[in-house]
Model the fold of this input.
Amino acid sequence: MSEHHAGLRWRRTSADFAYDTYNRAHEVTFKGGTVVLAGSAAPAFKGDADRVDPEEAFVGSLSACHMLTFLAVCARKRLVLDSYDDDAVGVLEKDEGGRFWVSRVTLRPRARFAAGTIVNEVMLNDLHHTAHEQCFVANSVKTHVAVEPQG
Done:
């Protein structure tokens, strides 16, 4: 078992605290404050488009966890990778009760194997399936996470 910590710091910078005018900018800190992520709400919720919103961070977390698990699975099978890219997309929508939630995240990973490493489509899909089943973050959420390998 392990613990993982994040700090969050927000301070009001607006003269008032009305929904339309209060600032959404905040900092999320990691590693005891040595790593800082500039955060905000999504622009649709009056946030700063130049900062990372929680929904983007959620999608990024799922993508990164899948990749790290995929790399581990491949390394254990002695399948050498040269690169891995993903263009993940999360969908925020309302549920039956009218509450917003990230209902689904689609990962679109592109794994490039080293010369001489032979991985066919069936093997690739199996590797991604195993990675998804073992991904700590995907195992922790109710959002439907789909993996669509891109070759």
Residues 54-76 form the longest helix (23 residues). Strands lie at 7-9, 26-30, 35-39, 81-86, 89-94, 100-107, 109-113, 144-147. The mean pLDDT is 96. Residues 54-147 form a domain with the GMP Synthetase; Chain A, domain 3 fold (CATH 3.30.300.20).
